[in-house]
Amino acid sequence: MPEPVRVEGSNADHRVMLFALSTCGWCRRTKKLLESLSVAYDYIDVDQLMGDDKDQVREELTRWNPACSFPTLVIDDDRCIVGFREQEIREVLG
Asked: What's the pLDDT at 64?
């Protein structure tokens, strides 16, 4: 899998991975919410990938979210939040 982009934050209590699209408004809102909560996270803009990298990321994404919809937030390799669910994200990471 390609190397995700790392966003540093003072809250690194959880391992957070965001699968996003660069053109998705809900994905941008999710990134802004994570940053406002000072959550450290990694993300991949899936639409920016090509070839094998894109295939590998889609395979990983499908494991968590068979619909492959965005944003998909994976927390601690244990929990998945699909869509911009602000209250749920705040409860888990806030």
From this structure: 97
The residues facing 45 across adjacent strands are: 20
> How many beta carbons lie within 10 A of that of residue 25, not counting itself?
9
> How many domains does the chain divide into?
1
Tell me the pLDDT tens digit for each residue of 60-94: 999 999 999 999 999 999 999 999 999 999 999 98
Distance CA 10, CA 52 (A): 33
Q: How far apart are CA 33 and CA 84, in angstroms?
A: 9
What is the span of the domain harbouring residue 49? 5-93
Q: What is the CATH number of the domain that holds 56?
A: 3.40.30.10
Give residue 43's identity as a one-letter amino acid code.
Answer: Y
